[in-house]
Write a structure and sequence with these properties.
It contains eleven helices and twelve strands.
Length: about 325
């Protein structure tokens, strides 16, 4: 089942790390769009801290070696210097979360800027010399040695993997949260159910898969692989289309605004599916959807200017032929 947290974030049926990254790259401000993703992840974590005492105890033990009872209030982004601020009678934990983004100097407790004009300086102003509480700063999603700044602020880094439940099952709410975080960028959560230590056959199969996709896309300009933990495929480029070719006609239909015309590959949706996505302007989506529906070989969907066609992999006896039909939509 798809994570309900993730459905709230996307407001759509189909979402993978590929689709999220695509929408961020097309945004007027990709950085602001990525920050929206992190902000939602923080809010989802805060919700679970509020509503699952077991998760609260697990989380606090990992990030600050505290019991659940040590923290009474949970505040989401109360100031620019804290994505999540947890407070109790004797404790304060200031948390910064990262989903693949860089830790910039004013957020990094190991850098001089942190304690002069960065988050460290702000935290010290908030919890000054008269404060009797123990204050900690933790960066979730990074991995470096714990320490103490020159002015006495304890800090640590907590990789996402440290939050995995080891030797015990995840509560239902936490399972939904982790499935969501995995797609949003903390990919360790998507692989947490894997038990095999080797993947030789799978690696050989991936090579065969790329061969299959390349063969299906014969006549189109293939770009770099665009694959992730929940999708594997190739970009189809706008350039290289000979006059009168299927590639040229596809360009004329889709009218891509960037160098990438579309994407073909496999995605883990409700089930493993064959997928083709065309990246067109919003005003062209209706026309592209109509053409794809006329093929009658799968389900058509739209996702932020991208129009997709998908079919459950087990329902198709010839994957290469399916991809070929989807690319020859014109």
């Amino acid at each position: 089942m798809k994570s309900q947290f993730l459905q709230l974030f996307t407001r759509g049926r189909y979402v993978t790390t590929r689709s999220i990254a695509y929408k961020e790259s097309k945004a007027e401000s990709p950085l602001a769009k990525h920050e929206e993703r992190e902000r939602f992840a923080v809010a989802a974590i805060a919700f679970c801290l509020e509503h699952d005492e077991g998760f609260k105890s697990h989380f606090l033990k990992v990030v600050a070696h505290l019991s659940g009872a040590a923290i009474k209030t949970i505040n989401v982004e109360p100031e620019r210097w804290g994505d999540l601020v947890l407070e109790g009678s004797n404790e304060v934990v200031v948390l910064e979360f990262k989903l693949g983004a860089l830790l910039v100097e004013h957020q990094d407790p190991r850098k001089p800027l942190f304690k002069t004009v960065g988050y460290g300086a702000d935290i010290k102003r908030k919890y000054g010399e008269t404060n009797s509480k123990k204050v900690r700063y933790a960066v979730v999603g990074k991995d470096f040695d714990a320490g103490t700044t020159d002015d006495g602020l304890d800090y640590c880094a907590v990789p996402w993997s440290a939050l995995l439940y080891r030797g015990s099952s995840e509560p239902k709410l936490v399972q939904d949260l982790y499935d969501c975080l995995g797609t949003l960028g903390a990919t360790v959560f998507l692989s947490r159910t894997m038990t095999r230590k080797t993947a030789t056959n799978e690696a050989l199969g991936a090579m065969d898969l790329y061969k299959l996709l390349s063969t299906a896309a014969n006549g189109f300009q293939i770009g770099e692989a665009d694959s992730g933990i929940d999708h594997i495929g190739l970009n189809i480029l706008k350039k290289g289309a000979a006059s009168g070719s299927s590639h040229a006609r596809l360009n004329a239909l889709v009218k891509p605004t960037s160098r990438v015309l579309g994407w073909i590959g496999f995605e883990r949706l409700e089930k493993l599916s064959l997928s083709v996505w065309y990246y067109c302007p919003m005003e062209e989506t209706k026309t592209v959807k109509k053409k794809l529906k006329q093929l009658g070989i799968g389900e058509v969907s739209e996702d932020g200017g991208a129009v997709g066609l998908s079919s459950v992999a087990d329902d198709e006896s010839d994957h290469e032929a399916w991809f070929r039909k989807a690319l020859l939509v014109v």
